[in-house]
Amino acid sequence: MSNKADLGLIKVFLAIYESGSVSGAAEKIHLTQPSVSYSLARLRKLLNDPLFTRTREGMQPTFNADQFYVTFRDSMLTIEQSIAAAQEFAPALSDRKFRIALSDLGEFYLLPIIMKKLQILAPNCSVEIITIEVDQIESWLLRGRVDVAVGNLEFLKNKVESQKLFYENYSCLLSSNHPRIKKIISPQQFLTEKHISISNSTGHFIIDEYLRKMDKSIDISLKIPHFSALPGIIPNCEMIGCLPTKVANKFAESRDLVSIPLPFEISHFEVGLYWNKSIDKPSAQKWLCKVIYDSLSVL
User: Fold this and answer.
1) Contact predicate 144/76, CB 8 Å
2) 179, burial (CB in 10 Å: exposed 0-12, middle 13-18, buried 19+)
3) d(Cα 15, Cα 23) in Å, to the nearest integer?
4) Please, are residues 211 and 248 in contact by the beta-carbon 8 Å criterion?
5) CATH homologous superfamily for the domain 170-267
6) Any alpha helices (H) in the chain, and if so which ranges?
């Protein structure tokens, strides 16, 4: 057996590290699972390290594998970018699968806009949407498990590449038949009315932080994991939901709902595009970022 590593072995290592499984690596680099397992065995012998241990959560890298990953990824990125400079991505001919991380609000409001453009420019490409988990998204981007992420993710700045898409604020969503609130809500009403709270795992906690700073609290009658449930709940109750204004206004196109401004001013937040430079066809990722930016930055 040769004691030399080739680029194919390095690609297998990176694919296992980033996907967390042999099967995921096989899918990512278009090899059979036995081929990936054989390459992993060669690497283990070549590098004199087990590299990964199998757990219920997937293939967990060893300490040495973490060190190898940084070096191997930087080297492969340099090689792939050099090749990509001479090869433009051809969206009309490609059958690539893109993985985009979005919140449930992003799926409702932003995804139709993105898909309209993609279906015109890249009709044979497919898209997989991964629901954003705030505590996981940095790792997903750094390991290449998603191509891009879109959302209120400013904590990722200086950790991955980013570009502002637009600024956003929050509004109140309530039933159009609310017995006490019509077109305006007072600060006192906001504090005393019953509210629907959305899980902080969505990354939307600006209003909670504001209330804590003001030493105020609200009456939370219902806590749910996703914003997308609000239009089905609010028309039949007197509760208030707070959510990004553009989506609140979209929900309020229904005659059963109304969107009104918050009774206090809070700082706006940035909806951005986030990505980590890909070693897997970087020209395709660059193209995807441009399509998303062109589609959403005008909102």
Assistant:
1) no
2) exposed
3) 10
4) no
5) Periplasmic binding protein-like II (3.40.190.10)
6) 7-19, 22-29, 33-47, 63-84, 104-105, 111-121, 137-142, 187-192, 206-213, 230-233, 245-251, 282-296
Residue matched to tokens 């590449």: 161
- For 7, 134, 203, 215, the CA distances from 137, given in Å and listed in that order, are 28, 6, 11, 31
Task: State the pLDDT confidence band at 164, using cuts at 50, 70 and 90.
Answer: very high
CATH fold, domain 7-84, is Arc Repressor Mutant, subunit A (1.10.10)
Length of the chain: 299
Q: Cα–Cα distance between 280 and 285 in angstroms, integer?
A: 8
What whole-number distance in Å separates Cα of residue 64 and Cα of residue 248? 48
pLDDT digits (tens, 9 = 90+) for 172-222: 999 999 999 989 999 999 999 999 998 876 667 789 889 999 999 999 999
The CATH number of domain 97-165+270-296 is 3.40.50.300: no
Are both 7-84 and 170-267 of the same fold?
A: no
